[in-house]
# Entry
Amino acid sequence: MTTMSARPGLDPEVGAFLAELPLAVELTAESLARLRAIPPTPLDVLLDGRDAVHREVAAPVPLSLFSPPAPRLAPCVYWMHGGGMVMGDRFSQIDIPLEWLDSFGAVVVSVEYRLAPEATGTALVEDCYRGLLWVAEHAADLGVDPERIVVAGVSAGGGLAAGVALLARDRGGPPIVAQLLICPMLDHRNITTSSHQYAGEPGVWTREMNEYGWRAVLGDLGAGAVPGYVSPAVADDLSGLPPAYVDAGSAEVFRDEDVAYATRIWAAGGQADLHVWAGGCHGFDALLPQAGISAAARRTRHDWLARILEAGR
# Structure
């Protein structure tokens, strides 16, 4: 195993918080089962004080919809949760897009995609794409402006959002106005400097955990048969994609693959806003939203999304 002792330090607030957590190096079938059994934050707590209507939809895949009481030509945030492609559900990190319901009156749709290792290969990203197709087809009934649908996700969900954007481009729709990729999981190869820096020591998401997640989702796919829809970093062509927002922490496994992805979008003539937050660990703003660095990250995303949605009117 390759390890590197030199690595960017953590933001003081983030470091103090992580020092109190029971972090691990590796992910195993046994520890995954325990993590999957942890109950999520109750939905009523997340919705308390929000003027939001929640309903469940029996679409081709399970969808949770959160909307203003009477949406009319509202923007839509189509949300894909994180969890390394092996855990989490459609309510994971839902507080992030619910802030955009509050700010923009957006309809938030969160998709329940199948998880690895029970589902493998393109199954996860295809689940997400099928849900997006349903939203676009039912935009009028949902009060959604079909020209202002944003795909968004965190970690594994960020990688799936990137894969959905590629699928929508290659299959001729539905139209996506932007892709918002929060510390996205984009590259199965684990070849970057940052993927080696965060190995061999406990963390929120380590190189060893990342290898486990990718092994689970790739299943029997050979190294040369991994589609770009599954591992967007290996997609041959990143042209013709909607504007992207890409962010990561400086102290995380995904830092360099996220920077490389934004760089390739620019090289293909596209638009990408890239932010690397000094001292941020993986998922820092979801783990510790009250930290100063987290507030700055969320505010910057909010401002970018505001510009995107205003331009799409």
About this structure: The first strand starts at residue 53 and ends at 58. Strands lie at 53-58, 62-67, 74-80, 107-111, 144-154, 178-182, 244-249, 272-277. The radius of gyration is 18 Å.
